[in-house]
Structures are given as structure tokens and as C-alpha cells.
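[RESIDUES AND BACKBONE]
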Amino acid sequence: MQASISLTDTPARQYLLRMADTCLILSQRLGEWCGHAPVLEEDIALTNIALDLLGQARALLALAGRSSGHDEDSLAFLRDERDYRNPTLVELPRGDFAFTVLRNLIVSTWLRLLWERLVQSSNVELAAIAGKAVKEARYHQQHSADWLVRLGDGTDESARRLRDACSTLWPYTTELFEADAVDAHAVASGLGPSWAELREPWWAELAPVLVEARLEVPAESPFRGHGKQGRHSEHMGYILAEMQHLQRSHPGAAW
């Protein structure tokens, strides 16, 4: 069994891993829809979105690991659970289609705003990654927004499922906008923006879509996720068990 890698946890690397792991774990959740989507077109669309996110994760992991001697595969498959820095929101179980659509809209809107700002990063490689990723995020955002309105303004059943998804997901959105020393270092170095800066523009874009979908947002909850600090929900271990099984059982396997 392949042992876990150790990684020096600098603020810059944490900042990169938070983005990389968000894309990586959400791509795994979306990949679970392959062969299970409600219509054939969505089976392909969700898989393509998952692949876009996986490509973004690969680029970010490669950048994060460059000075540590670890490649993208080592960082994806050989870290312990507490070394992953994704927000709890993206590791929650797949849920139904309404749950997936709403989570995609929440995350893609946030990611698009983040990528737009990262185009100006002091790290030229990160800026280049952002320049490509922002185009993908625009499509992800539009795709999920269109579906949200269709579900919210559809049948009683689709509207109910969307309300249930909102009640479950909304408390986890707070973590996307909580700033800490990692954000402060990114701002000071020019690496990227504080995630807190994204809250107002994120809400300004999301609110009209929610209104059109006839969806009321629950009151703010005192609950806070701590995935960015490596303290994950009980669901994270199951994702990693599936992701890491082959690499840990057959290190460096070639086919």
C-alpha cells in the first residue's frame, strides 16, 4: 500500500490547493452522474463539466506541487484527508438532479468571479490557467442557471426538490467567502484576491436567477464548514477511498 506524501503547507500552496481541491472533488461528484442523468444530453453535459473541472484541478495541482517535488497525480491521490483544502460544499453526496444543478450554479458563479480576478495574478502561470478556465466557468454557470429556472418554474415536484436542495446547500455557502491568513497572504503577494471579496458580486449575479426560479433563500445559519482548514465531513473519506484505491494499491501503475 502506497504511503501518503508529506507537503510543506505554505500560504501560497494552501491558496492554490483550495482552488485545486474544489475543482477536483466537485469533478468527482459530477462524474458520478455518468450513465445516471435524467436525459441523455445531460449525461454528456455533466460529464463534460466534470472533465473541465478536472482539467482545472490538474493545472492547479501541477503548479502547487512544482516547488515540492510532487506532481499532480501525487497530490490528487496520495494526500491524507486532512491535507485536502476544498470547501465542504463540494464533497457533499451527489444528491438528486436539482441538488446538482443548484450546487453547480453556486460553485460555477463563484469560480467564474475568482478566475476573472486571477487573470491579473502576479503568478503568470496561474494567470494563464485562469484565462482558459474562465471561459469554461461561464458555460458551466449559464448551463446550471438555465436548468435552475426550468426546475423552479416547472412542476410541483421539481420545485419542491429545488427547495429541498436549497435548504441543504445554503448553509455551506458561507465557507466560500470566509477570509483568513491564507487570503491575506495572497492579496499581499498579488497571487489572487481574498475569497471574501467575491461575496457581493456572487450574490448580485445569483439573486436574479433565484428569483426567476421562484426560489427563496433560507435565513443565514450559524453553521460553518471547515473543509478549507482540512476538517471535512464524513463524506470526504468515501470519495478519497474510491479515488485513491488504485494508486495506493498499485503505485505507479502503467497500462
User: Anything to note?
Assistant: The chain has a mean pLDDT of 95. The chain has one domain: 11-242.
